[in-house]
Amino acid sequence: MGGPGRKLRELIGRGETVLAAGCYDPLTAKLAERLGFEAAYLGAGTVGYILNVTEAMITVTEMATAIRQVTQKTRIPLIVDGATGFGEPLHTMRTVREYERAGAAAIEIEDQIVPKRAHHHKGVEHLVPLEAMVDKVKAAVAAREDADFIIIARTNAMRNEGLSQAIERGRAYRQAGADMILVGGRTREEAELLHREIGAPLVTFAMPGMVERLNIAVKDMAKIGYPLLLEPHAALISAFRAVRDTMRELKETGTTSLDPAEVTAIMQEINQAVDLPDYWRLEELTVEKPAR
After folding, report:
1. Number of domains composing the chain
2. pTM score, two decimals?
3. Of these four, 65, 103, 177, 229, which has the most CB atoms within 10 Å of its CB?
């Protein structure tokens, strides 16, 4: 059967676009799986927000814990944000091993400076020299224990340095052993050029407006060299908005306008997602079985 990396490689190898749903905990990952997504994505930024510290202050241990919690409850491959590898090549080596042993199928490592700055949330992304990132990619490739574990090297050069530099970095990371390169084109022509010039399968984010500007359907992205798309934070944003609105209403009125029938129905869905019926059945056969 193979491990999670093998499963993801097989999905990507079909020639169809794999859309990985962004999750932030086991419940959202399980929901993605139940809705038919074939892969999930766990972003360091999302985990950072959940812990109320942002990505710049997240640790490899916190990420490994989050990975393990998700992979113990789901079967679909999990792609995980490895940020900057959490340090130099030595630290990148440990990050890869922690992620792989926690059950991830793939790690994404980017070429920003270490330690990462909170300013990246404002679009300020200071890149490390190309050679420094090449060393990290080589360390990541050497560190994996399963050859099927996927190494995704991400470059932010498109926004910081331009198209030609993004191609140069993408080529170098591919030659260093990266299985895939995360880089997005601003137009379809750029996206196709990136794939052609880098010579590797590419990855990009499926955020509002990012795929639409390429004038191509999500399902057809594999045809222009993008077999894997990552949706990073729609679940977090949607959940925050819903909870904020409900809490505001509760504070202002002392109650909520949630429909009782809908509450019951959603609770039943949650119960199914956490396998509560299986737990009930176990208890009915043991501690809750009828007295004779």
Report:
1. 2
2. 0.95
3. 229
